Amino acid sequence: MFTWLLVAIVAGIVVGAVWPGFGSDLKPLADGFIKLIKMLIAPIIFCTVVLGIAHVGDMRSVGRIGVKALIYFEAVTTFALLFGLVVGNIVKPGNGFDINPETLATGAKAVADKTQDAELPHTVDFLLNIIPTSALSAFAENELLQVLFFAVLFGLGLAKVGEKGPPIVLETIDQLSHIFFTVIGWIMKLAPLGAFGAMAYIVGEYGLSSLSSYGKLIACCYLAAVLFIVVLGVIVRIFAGVNLWKFIVYIKDELFVALGTASTEVVLPRIMTKLSNAGCSRTTTGLVVPTGYSFNLDGATLYLSICILFLAQALGVELSFGEQITAVLVLMLTSKGMAGVPGSSFLALSATVSAIGHGSIPVAAVALLLGADRIMDSMRVSVNLLGNCVATFVVANWEGQLDKERMRKVLAGEPVEPLTDVDPMTGEEEVAAEQAGSKV
């Protein structure tokens, strides 16, 4: 898989650069692959979380995992924002642009077209939206946080009923889980095709010229990403005893799929499988990973804080320390509602520019980033993905649900026993659904 993904990504770049029109027309390959994965994400999260909670059957444990995950998310994303400001102040990626604000008259319309006139939800609306209108609507609209919320309640209820004997419902969900992971195994064989289409489209549509025009900003963001990944490596080594480099090698296939398709959602089922196989409990993995997709966007927050400084520097505006801190505080709120909103980074930046209240930076200036935004996708998805994996290891270890011996063997490439579950009806051990699906 790794070799085919590498070939597909390189081929996509070549096709997009040499035949840009043809490359742009290959977008349906990527879209089709992403839709195939997304149609199974909600049911897989539901089955994984319900089975994990039903087997543990401890409401307090579930609550502790959730609280610890949110504390970790807030701490790390805030650090990412501050880290981005430090890098942006040192590198100064916007210096040399010398943009005249009067030339940005059409910027607001360009941003509106990019975001499809969408709006980021207010904090209260965002929190209320976690509660689905109905259980079915959460699945129909593919709202992962709503599915997770319903799955937690359903799993706790199932655990309570299970005290009187293993219900047939648990057996049904267990079998469905095996089916979904098996189908995911089939779909993942199309990953090179999806990555090829995505890269051909990005290069064909946006061209390589933006690399020269926004070279300093792109270099700044990728430098910050590399340094931040080093920080993540230190965090996961200290708080979970995990060697991040070995883990990156372990998930290299999933990482390349995410990079090639510019989406972390497409590898969510496979990442959950890999984390469980590496010693994280199913309960912790099922709760932390989906929640992190909305609350722990490390790569996106890192990018946003650098872009705020880029816009100010491009317009020749010196932001005071207080204005930069204001930007961080606003981004701490707006970044939490970004998942699933079209052009969310532009909306978050627009809201932040407005909140700073600096008249010399018009909101339309956000349009300056349109030419470089897609080039940043690889940076954002790689940091987002690794950030959520690190969070899972840290919270699992924090909660005492990390099998360190298994983790050490898996990351060292040593053979381990397949993960097993207890059949809820017979009481006998069987191969876990995640392991069954990974063999396809």
From TrEMBL:
Does Protein biosynthesis appear among the keywords?
Answer: no
Which SUPFAM superfamilies did the record assign?
Proton glutamate symport protein
Q: Which GO terms describe its biological process?
A: L-aspartate transmembrane transport
What is the name of the gene encoding this protein?
A: dctA
Identify its membrane topology class. Answer: Multi-pass membrane protein
- Cellular compartments annotated: Cell membrane
Which UniProt keywords are present, listed alphabetically? Cell membrane, Membrane, Symport, Transmembrane, Transmembrane helix, Transport
Question: What lineage does UniProt assign to this protein's organism?
Answer: Bacteria, Bacillati, Actinomycetota, Actinomycetes, Mycobacteriales
The annotated region (Disordered) lies at 415-440
Recall the GO molecular function terms of this protein's record.
Answer: fumarate transmembrane transporter activity; malate:proton symporter activity; succinate transmembrane transporter activity
Protein name, as recorded: C4-dicarboxylate transport protein
- InterPro entries per record: Na-dicarboxylate_symporter, Na-dicarboxylate_symporter_CS, Na:dicarbo_symporter_sf
Q: Where are the transmembrane segments?
A: 33-57, 69-91, 144-162, 183-204, 216-240, 302-334, 346-370
Q: Which domain of life is it from?
A: Bacteria
Read off the PROSITE patterns from this record.
NA_DICARBOXYL_SYMP_2
